[in-house]
Amino acid sequence: xxxxxxxxxxxxxxxxxxxxxxxxxxxxxxxxxxxxxxxxxxxxxxxxxxxxxxxxxxxxxxxxxxxxxxxxxxxxxxxxxxxxxxxxxxxxxxxxxxxxxxxxxxxxxxxxxxxxxxxxxxxxxxxxxxxxxxxxxxxxx
Amino acid sequence: xxxxxxxxxxxxxxxxxxxxxxxxxxxxxxxxxxxxxxxxxxxxxxxxxxxxxxxxxxxxxxxxxxxxxxxxxxxxxxxxxxxxxxxxxxxxxxxxxxxxxxxxxxxxxxxxxxxxxxxxxxxxxxxxxxxxxxxxxxxxxxxxxxxxxxxxxxxxxxxxxxxxxxxxxxxxxxxxxxxxxxxxxxxxxxxxxxxxxxxxxxxxxxxxxxxxxxxxxxxxxxxxxxxxxxxxxxxxxxxxxxxxxxxxxxxxxxxxxxxxxxxxxxxxxxxxxxxxxxxxxxxxxxxxxxxxxxxxxxxxxxxxxxxxxxxxxxxxxxxxxxxxxxxxxxxxxxxxxxxxxxxxxxxxxxxxxxxxxxxxxxxxxxxxxxxxxxxxxxxxxxxxxxxxxxxxxxxxxxxxxxxxxxxxx
Lengths: 141, 409
Description:
heterodimer, A: Heat Shock Protein 90, 5 helices, B: Alpha-Beta Plaits, 3 domains
């Protein structure tokens, strides 16, 4: 039965630094309960957390969908804007548009998207300025 | 799954089913069944929180009696460094060691020396370990990582604890003096229950060099009597011990003794969980070392101690001002370093998966998520599980039945 999977959904709120990271912890618990290996869980945690914090810091809020299959995890993060003008620039290590508020809290090092890409086997990003950004990550095992 | 010994035990006749321990347990390891607390041992890390919060003495530690030392020809004791914080300000640690010896021991081993050895090894080993490196001193935290944070096992420093180092050095010393191993009894005076678990578990695996753990609270009255009787005539202002070693009793003390920068010291199991979650999410990569303790304030917060942990911390930090600590650790030889660096001191006996194969686990998780959606979500605890989520998991695992929830939709 190859189509067995678990779908998890999390609403991520803009500027919600207090609860940022909660979705990632829930995903981790689910992966452990499904018996997924530690090395994979570690990569999923980092990818989810960075994606979650990106939405908290930069966007008007969004939704994270995580689908756990028996051979891969798919994470899809779609937010409600403002979108990214220059994706190549946003993918550059150290480049950041984080507001001062986020930097003061230790975020905004410009490593979010690069760390997500490093943790994933497949990485897609699509954005329409003024509308949305969609990030899709696949981690195989 | 291998059987694991737990030192936290229930005294059923004392339990009134008040649910205090169930709601306070940081691991959600306690349930109420037929109005009595039950510990789910695979989740329990022996942190001792339930012993602290129970007002009816229904949670107890499984302790060794000091009478056990009589079975050995040579009786050696390793007091926890916390002992020097339990008798008020400025009491010379050497006097406290004398008091311990008077209980019938042949030798009181100075653990601060072992603390200094371990500090030096950590300073070196930190370079070979992924950042942030996590200290392995607190057995409850090590067990927490085994149970819930298998992804962080590689971050745990690969070094024995000062107690194990001390025991190994004692064994060596008496072997050279031609004593048979079975003639030498080594006892640790423990401030907490997690060390009892560690000593007994390693004894089960025949790895332990330590024969027993004696609770500080049991011997405290005798020690206090001795200290009070002798403190006015004890004029010695110096001690052949290490101040940096004494600091291991308090949260932040390890890092202070190593003169480390960029470290986090965290105490209290719930706080440790927050830090471990963050590490797992990839945070704190610029932090060198995390020094975690399950008890509030560090080892001085142990459930078997008498002094208020925060006053104990003051006493530990102030000792240096009135006592001349003559001993300074000379340096670490490669021999010592290799002897006490361990390849892997973490067990992987735990598994929280719902089923052995992925398909069955998915089925159970779907069933579990359906249950969660039909529960009120207010974690009222009337079903005997600490939260609605925990209850759903218990139902799926066959440990509870759905009709135990009175509010299910």
